[in-house]
Design a protein that fits this description.
It is built from 13 helices and seven strands. It is mainly α. It has one domain. Strand 3 and strand 4 form a beta hairpin. The chain binds iron/sulfur cluster (SF4) (2 copies).
Length: about 300
């Protein structure tokens, strides 16, 4: 129950994310960057569009959304909405000593299925779901992409999770270079020197060599596992609940000090997006004209 409560935001977003590629309105989808038919489908409408323009839209849209989320939600995204953190919480459940081998195997299978469904959903934003299932069955490009992404995600979850968050994640890198330190929400506070140095918070942290007691560290993904570990340490102590806590207020500060930078960057990304799309479309039209001339 606590697991579901802690991950409710992620699950609330995961369900629509997985459902959207299946939803059709009339002849077109709710949202589909249809690469196999060179078409952008949105809210039941479809427009013909060149492959390169479609790639440009996807890349810039992805970058624009990532940047906006980094500037507004910052590490709140990592702790509450990132699939990696969800998997970290899930693995902690499975690693519990009280679990039987059978339930651990069941849990790992469930996690593998979930990672594969996530990979399927990601690719399904670029090709119709029926065509994608066909592509998986025939091991064509999109099908292989789903299998590759699934394997990558499963390997990442089981083998390099925290290391990935700390050193490879592009979102984490973006957060690290933006002026958003004050949006971190998990903090360690021990003014009465009550820490018993059990190292529970350090051992459970998915990020390598991160010790929240040493203060600010941009690599912290705000997963909250250290808070749970510390609360367990003091579970039988009637005076202390935990030395690590979640600061609601710091999240609300998001967008305050750096609002100007945020607006400027978002406007720049939008303008670049419009520019690149126009350029790509013009180039495509010109190449079509050239091809037609050659054919004549
Ligand atoms: S310090 Fe705590 S909140 Fe931050 S990544 Fe480690 S366990 Fe998660
Ligand atoms: S879990 Fe709590 S008591 Fe244990 S080392 Fe961390 S802060 Fe100290």
């Amino acid at each position: 129950m606590k697991f579901l409560r802690n991950n409710r935001l992620f699950l609330a977003l995961l369900i629509p994310f997985m459902v959207i590629p299946w939803v059709r309105i009339g002849n077109f989808h709710l949202l589909l960057f249809n690469f196999s038919h060179n078409r952008l489908e949105f809210l039941g409408f479809g427009i013909e569009i060149g492959t390169y323009t479609l790639i440009g839209i996807v890349v810039l849209l992805g970058f624009g959304i990532t940047l906006t989320v980094a500037l507004t939600l910052s590490r709140f995204y990592c702790g509450m909405l990132c699939p990696n953190t969800f998997f970290a919480h899930f693995l902690t459940l499975l690693r519990s000593k009280k679990k039987s081998i059978l339930s651990k195997i069941g849990g790992f299978l469930l996690l593998t299925v979930l990672a594969s469904m996530l990979a399927f959903s990601v690719v399904a934003y670029g090709i119709r779901t029926d065509e994608l299932m066909d592509a998986i069955a025939h091991l064509s490009f999109s099908g292989c992409l789903v299998i590759f992404l699934s394997l990558l995600m499963i390997a990442e979850v089981y083998m390099v999770q925290g290391w990935y968050c700390a050193y490879l994640c592009p979102y984490g890198a973006m957060c690290a270079i933006l002026p958003i330190d004050d949006r971190l929400t998990y903090t360690y506070e021990d003014s009465k020197n009550q820490c018993i140095a059990c190292e529970g918070c350090v051992k459970i942290c998915p990020i390598p060599d991160l010790d929240i007691r040493k203060g600010f560290d941009i690599r912290c993904i705000q997963c909250g596992l250290c808070e749970v570990a510390c609360a367990k340490t003091f579970a039988k102590n009637p005076t202390i609940t935990t030395l690590i806590s979640y600061d609601q207020r710091s999240r609300l500060r998001a967008g305050g000090r750096d609002r100007g930078i945020l607006i400027a960057i978002v406007v720049m990304v939008l303008l670049t997006m419009v520019g690149v799309i126009t350029l790509l479309d013009t180039e495509r039209l010109q190449s079509c004209r050239l091809e037609n001339q050659i054919l004549h």
